Fold:
Amino acid sequence: REMKEQLAALQDSERGHTEALQLLQRQLTETKSSAKSLRATIGDAFERLHRFLRERQKSMLEELEADTARTLSDIEHKIQRYSQQLRDVKEGIQILQDKLSETGRHEFLEGVALTSDRIKGKIHETNLTYEDFPTSKYMGPLQYTIWKSLFQDISPVFGLVPASCFAGTLQAVWAEPAALHSGRCQAVPAALTLDPLTAHQRLILSDDCTIVAYGNLHPQPLQDSPRRFDVEVSVLGAEGFCSGVHYWEVMVSEKTQWMIGVANETVNRKGSIQIQPSRGFYCIVMHDGNQYSACTEPWTRLNVKSKLEKVGVYLDYPKGLLVFYNADDMSWLYTYREKFPAKLFPYFSPGQSHANGKNVQPLRINTVRL
Structure:
């Protein structure tokens, strides 16, 4: 009997090890495949960037050659005209000098009228001024100018943009952030507004619904509705997403507390709410003045090197990806991988402000303006 039990235990162990090896083998294969795909994605993104820079260089050089040819042609025409005018002037001077050298009074007087006719048209005004070559187009902060044109090439739009509509990308390439560089589409900073009908009564929204702050005064007399948060000081974006690729940025500077991310359309908005994926919220949070975490279960501490000033939120709904970035340098912060069950709305909470002046700054939706 003891031997049978040992045999059964060994057989269970064999099955467990076999399954573990199969799992590891699958993981090995998938890791190699993912790495290969990411190498291609990164290479494609930088090739697009290089192609844009080459095309921009070619365009600038062609424009420079056209300006040079036009300026040289204009100068050569002016040289020809002024050379002819100079010959006319010299001829007029010679005519008058010859006339003035005549000694006979009678001959001199007889030739005055003829001489006057001969020098007509030989007197030309010289109102030429020096014109600088248009170097300012090609000098100044040239790298910054090119950067601006590159950013315009991926001009702000909302939602999905075909890859054919852009030539390059500025975002940093990372293992997770490589989602930003799929050949299928590109998401870039876009216009986004807040939905006043979802805002907690203590939240104050700007007239254009792009800024939200916590008000220390009494709650505003706003009509309650199932859409409005009544305990959590939160507000949702006005537009939700159930498809496509999207990206927006939020200014979080000079704050000691905030929470941003996305929420399912069906989340509970009444009473105290746990902000976590199982409740339909996918967020990151700043807390305790200088700490950052992803609102997982339990929270996951984020490795943030310096205080965040601007946060980028990237949503690829079909792939179930939600990626957060430090939008100043596009360094990666955190990634949620989920099969989203419902329409998602951008989520914002500026946190409570305090009488001592802490955390009084608002959250601002950042729109790229070039």
